Amino acid sequence: MDQATSAVKAFLLLLTSPPALAEWLTILIAVVVAIAVMRALTARRVPYPVAGAGQSHLPDHVLTGALLMAPLAAALATLYAGRALLAHYGNPGVHVAIAAQLIAALALVRAGVFVLGLLLGPASWVRNREIRITLVLWLVVSVALLGWLDVLETTLNRVSLVPGRTQFSLWALLKGLVVVTAFVVVSSLIARAIERHVMRLDQLAVSTRVGVSKFTYFLLLGLGILLGINAAGVDVTTLNVLTGAIGLGLGFGLQSVASNFVSGFVLLMDKSIKPGDVISFTGHTGASTGNFGWVQELRGRYVVVRDRDGVDTLVPNQNLITSPFINWSYSDQRVRLKLPVTVSYDDDPEIALQLLLQAAENHPRILHDPPPVSRLISFEDNGMRLEIRFWIADPVNGVNNIRSDVNRAIWRIFRANGVRIPVPQQETRMLATRTPGPQPVAAFTIPPSTDQAAD
Asked: Is 386 in contact with 348 (CB distance < 8 Å)?
């Protein structure tokens, strides 16, 4: 007990000695300088630029990285300057040197995570968790720099997670997670690079490019996981039971997931749908449907469809395989619209047909080749049913809006030329009936029976 107390006292005296206090003061000044630089640059921090088509954001990325590294660089400069000053007065500055090593390691890890987030893209898990990933990696590197890694490995190896013949310690689990994560990150980088290259191939259809990119991503990701497990020291053949259980789950509980996954690849390969297509899911055919949506993204399990209200609908891939839908831009962007209208029998149908053509001829979205046509369709109970038919080449800009424009033009031109649109009417006739009076009752006499037969 006395030896432990003496050791603690000696350690405290070492920490509170004048040379040690000078080193701690130097480290504290470096931390204050880093915080001051960080606060001064916070207002000028450049956000992550969103890459667009044909744009290079390398200068913006370099500026953002420089602003991130500036506080750490200021702390390192302060530490080296302080160590030089301490060495001038005979203080070796051991703690300052260790602090400088830790800060340099933090700067390298922060720069590496920043570059990795840029390579994986703005939607990657690395970009969304940069600070936490940096801290975890820095702690691991710090433990290795301080020489505590062997002690930590020995301690964690004593914790067995699987009792029995097979030795599987906590250290083996952590090492396996690190190795698998490293392989997954490398596989993701390769897959992203292949995806960017494939998406720039204009000679391939968009659906084919997306299909190749998705297939390559999942293939490399699965291969990276298997290689990481093998590199971590786990025999892959021991996973036969696990893979068998997964296969059984796919056969029973994950049927819809597997079906949607396979249906997604079928949609990509047969080119029936691609990003940017205008589709509708109603059960009606032709141009009368109004439930439109734009295909935003093709995912492994679903398709993201955005309607005109800005609402994203996640449609399972299996629904697009088994249920009919209308692809307005599958082979040709041009679609024909039909607008019915009824005119009175008192009006001349030839004049009404000409007025319908005039109502549709001046709209900028209506094509002139083929030109609009008007037809007399049928004779109804309350009037003659006419129809104006015209073609448009941009259904992506909406269909109901052009319907509204043409209908308003028809209403104005009919009113100006005295053509009436009849309204169904019903006539109710009230007939007056005379109330019947009391009728005289004639005397009823029973005639004498002529049947003389005996019962």
From this structure: no
406/339 same-domain check? yes
In tens, the pLDDT along 129-179 reads 788 888 888 888 888 887 777 777 777 777 766 665 556 677 777 777 777
Distant-in-sequence, close-in-space partners of 296: CB < 8 Å, separation ≥ 6: 275, 304, 305, 306, 312
Distance CA 403, CA 281 (A): 20
Select from 164, 160, 184 the least CA-distant residue to 173.
Answer: 160
Domain-located, residue 228: no
The predicted model gives 87-105 an average pLDDT of: 82
Alpha-carbon gap, residue 209 to 199, rounded angstroms: 6
What pLDDT, on the 0 to 100 scale, is given for residue 161?
62
Rounded-to-integer distance, Cα 273 and Cα 295, Å: 8
Q: In what order do the strands lie in the sheet with 335-343?
A: 335-343, 384-392, 373-379
Omega prior to 370 cis, within 30 of 0: yes
pLDDT for position 438: 62
CATH number at residue 373: 3.30.70.100
128 membership: H or E segment, kind and range: helix 125-128
Q: Residues 104-110: what's their mean pLDDT?
A: 87
Q: Taking the alpha carbons of 415, 418, 423, 427 in that order, is the dihedral positive or negative?
A: positive
Mark whether 290 and 355 lie in a shared domain. Answer: no
Query: What is the spatial distance between Cα 184 and Cα 224, in angstroms, rounded to a whole number?
Result: 5
Q: Does pTM surpass 0.85?
A: no
Closest CA to 176 of 232, 224, 230, 239: 232
Domain boundaries, position 35: 11-49+57-147
Q: In this model, does residue 37 exceed pLDDT 80?
A: yes
21 and 84 fall within a common domain: yes
Residues 21 and 138 both lie in one domain: yes
Q: In what order do the strands lie in the sheet with 278-280?
A: 312-316, 302-306, 292-298, 278-280, 326-327
Short-list 168, 167, 216, 223, CA closest to 195:
216
- Most confidently modeled range among 31-35, 38-42, 115-119, 242-246: 31-35
**Cβ neighbours of residue 271 under 8 Å, at least 6 residues apart?**
205, 207, 208
